[in-house]
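Reading a protein record of the kind used here takes only a little practice. These numbers are not coordinates but entries in a learned vocabulary of local backbone shapes. Here is one such record, which you should read through line by line.
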Amino acid sequence: MDIIHVPNNYQAANDLLIGKTILVTGAGDGIGRVAALSYAAHGATVVLLGRTESKLEAVYDEIEKAGHPKPGLVEMDLATVTEEQCKHLAQGLSAEFGHLDGLLHNASLLGERRPIESAGYTAWQEVMQVNVNAQFLLTHYLLPLLQEAPAASMMFTSSGVGRTGRAYWGAYAVSKFATEGLMQVLADELENTSNVRVNCINPGATNTAMRRSAYPGETPTDNPSPQDIMPAYLYLMGSDSTGVTGKSLDAQ
């Protein structure tokens, strides 16, 4: 696995994403929320996708209040999303924007943390649905819109436990191995035939609700905030990472 890091002291230009349309999943909270705000602050029209309308509306209002480009809002639960819904989403985005310049697959489900031998199959399926199957469906139907852009970036969210298996991380770890694999297969398929670059980003230990749930004994503020790791998210999404594809990037 080819792991890269953000260039030292990387600072995105204020106009890095002007004119770009970027879809962010899990945009209502945590890293997804901050990434959406950061992309909007750098000029992008952001399409906010998530399962909780009230959270998405709060991010929408924050972007508008700051005077950034008017975002889009898509209420969609990846735990129950269907192929027809993804097809309808792609058609709507095509009609509204014509193409997509970026896609951040951020939404993930932690699921159970227990030994494989005592893991529940229903909980296992839920994690695989959100973290793998839904990502496949969105990728499948949104890829043609990314290919319509002059240059586009697709980012998958990985994890350290998706590179080296760790006890009791169960379905979440396996789903992140699958995510790394999906990224590598797709990047290899597109490298010489498309303008779409495809990479993974591992946020690392970050002060989010998921991290606090996974590590209840930690002091949350000992970990960086989502805002602290945004240089990596801007780097991979913007033109400064042109030519970088098939890689897994550590945000810290």
In short: Strands lie at 3-5, 21-25, 45-50, 72-75, 102-105, 152-157, 196-202, 248-250. The first strand starts at residue 3 and ends at 5. The first helix runs from residue 30 to 41. The helical segments are 30-41, 53-65, 83-97, 121-147, 170-190, 209-214, 230-237.
